[in-house]
């Protein structure tokens, strides 16, 4: 007998929309731009030819419409990997669960999701404003560790080498390493973007090695991360969502990737608070290619 997903596990609002995102299945498009900042959704939608809907619920702001005649939507996930668990599960539910019968559909829909974010560089040569693709994403958040199949989508050798090299603290969640969708990276990535390896941190300050008033558990961590090399790869940057996006995307069969504009360089102690022009240029480029 087909599994029926109970109301406690998939909460559907009285208007037929999914619990947090407040979107209905008919509002979902196959191509999705994800951004952290709810106001960035308006910036993305300013490039659309037409706008069909504009929905706001908590930090989740979505505008759906068309770009160059094809359906597209842009959704904000807010800050943090825990929000990505909500966003990807609810987008997948809109795509692949029948909201009337509460059964998983026989024919699964494959979504294309590109996150356009901001990020802090961990290598001195990465200039402010550079777009960096997370070819591999290293999740410090632990979200993927709660799902069966985690090891099948993870780069276990990279994980092991990384934990050894930086002396991983057992009090922190075990890192997982997941590739972006390779075909999507080739479609979106050009010579104007750096192909990097991005950490999804579980916070902005201590978890990214920022010391304001509170001393850090391991003040050497960022230097060890900067020096780490594995099969010719180095860790390039910090942000907070790419790993659960790429990990859950892979487990569910969707295409997902992240590209971030560098707004701070942690190695040079440099930052650009006026980063929005660079982000706008990156949005225009991604929309051309998605
Ligand atoms: O600019 P966004 O997309 O929010 O991305 C980055 O900025 C936020 C922290 O300032 C985190 O969400 C991080 O991932
Ligand atoms: O340093 C940074 C900049 C933007 N977003 C982050 O998560 N870290």
UniProtKB/TrEMBL annotation:
EC numbers for this chain: 2.4.2.3
Short name of any one Pfam family annotated for the protein: PNP_UDP_1
SUPFAM superfamilies linked: Purine and uridine phosphorylases
InterPro entries in the cross-refs: Nucleoside_phosphorylase_d, Nucleoside_phosphorylase_sf
Location of the Nucleoside phosphorylase domain: 31-273
Signal peptide as annotated in the record: none
Uppermost EC category: transferase
Domain of life where this protein originates: Bacteria
GO biological-process terms attached to the record: purine nucleoside catabolic process
Gene Ontology molecular function, alphabetical: purine-nucleoside phosphorylase activity; uridine phosphorylase activity
Protein name in the entry: Uridine phosphorylase
Provenance organism: Duncaniella freteri
